[in-house]
Amino acid sequence: MCIVYMRVQCSDTFSEMITGETEQTELAIESIVGTALLEVFDSVVMENVTVHHSQENNDRDRECQ
To answer: Can you tell me the distance from the alpha carbon of 16 to that of 37, in angstroms, rounded to the nearest whole number?
Structure first.
């Protein structure tokens, strides 16, 4: 059995998360990453998929406007 921990940071350039749709975004990530991992492993269990907006990125966006 392998345990894989991932932390992914997305650039704002191609960010697709809609504010208020956090749960749907987490489910989409779980589905996509789980499917990709099935290419390598026989079975996959996903736990604790969470999405957070970075305050640092929000501040930078305000400066650019």
So the answer is: 22
